[in-house]
Amino acid sequence: MMIAPLYSAEISPATVRGFLVSFTEVFVNVGILLGYVIGFAFQFLSSAYNWRLMLGAGALPAIFLAVGALFVLPESPRWLVLQGRNEEAKHVLIDVVCGKDEVEAQQRLEEIITANEEEGGGAGCGCFSGGTKKSSNSSSGKSPLGSFLSDLRRFLTSPLARMYVIAIGVNFFQQASGIDALVYYSPVVFKQAGVHDKIGKLGATVGMGVVKLAFVFVATYLLDHVGRKKLLYVSASGVIACLTTVAVTFVLLGLNSAKGDSLIGVSDQKAETARSSAAGEAVTIAAILAYVAFFSVGFGPISYVLTSEIFPLRHRSTAVGVSVFVNRAVSGTVALTFLSIAKAITPAGIFGLFAGITTVSLLFVWLMVPETKGRTLEDIAHLFASSSHQGEGSRDVELAPATK
């Protein structure tokens, strides 16, 4: 979850970086879909060993990954520069990034070296290197608390702080829209919508996995053609509309009960009403599938793309780790509390809550997130620093493709 987008961003040319980094989300969804399909297929086997086969199947891709990482994948050229191994970095740039073009590889290498030296010397975005030294020199005589507060103030007004806000915010909103709760509890949600037979629920769940994967593939194309920010607008708007539709349909079908002894309680009488309302069932399932599609075309892959490309070299790995931690923490919290909250405020209430959170994400994207399409990683770091020094907000600074 952390290394894949980071590595992809660091070895990708700027023109196709969004396409390549988004493959992290593609293969996450391939895994989810395979899990659905394997679960569907293995249910017909004996319960004495079908779950063991499901668990064992997960070891196969891990073996291929280990072999590839050990014997095939080169180190990232930016990491090699950070370690002072510039000649090795140039060879990786020639072989992997620049298509055997030695002139372009040399140019890219010089850009990476320059950016690394600036960060190490406190220029540009090196908010913790040179900036801390200046702060410590100018704050001689201050108490340790005073020095800490001074350094903290410098960080909070630095370009790096804005980068962290963007990365953490995008990862928070990605999971706070409720996508993982729907992935984990899709059979329960489809039962609530009126699908009561086991084959029907599993079939609808597999269909959701297919839709999720298909629209991530759509996003891989659009990221470097349409851009990140526009896709986030489309994704959030679609998610809001679909979640609202699900909530309203639950209310109109009379399924919005928080009582009963099921995971999300529905009385037998109301369940029978749901069976008789084929149109309502179809609308709910269609809205859920559309929700998954809108999520997958925007927030799904873009959180990984933005997180891996906006940070300067010296801070990138730590920052991506922090962002992925936030992503997983929010995902776990949503999954663990989904059923309890649904019982407390009704199923329509929790889908309405997710819609409300996603509405806030639209404002966040408008105010904070810049467009990074077509820029090199070094250009992005410099432009964050420039916008900070000029006192401009992200709404006024579009990181347009660099002129050649």
TrEMBL record:
Its main location: membrane. GO terms for cellular component: membrane. This is Major facilitator superfamily (MFS) profile domain-containing protein. The chain crosses the membrane at residues 26-45, 51-73, 163-185, 205-224, 231-253, 282-306, 318-342, 348-369. Residues 1-373 form the Major facilitator superfamily (MFS) profile domain. SUPFAM superfamilies: MFS general substrate transporter. It comes from Ceratopteris richardii. The keyword Transmembrane applies. InterPro entries: MFS_dom (IPR020846), MFS_sugar_transport-like (IPR005828), MFS_trans_sf (IPR036259), Myo-inositol_Transporter (IPR050814), Sugar/inositol_transpt (IPR003663).
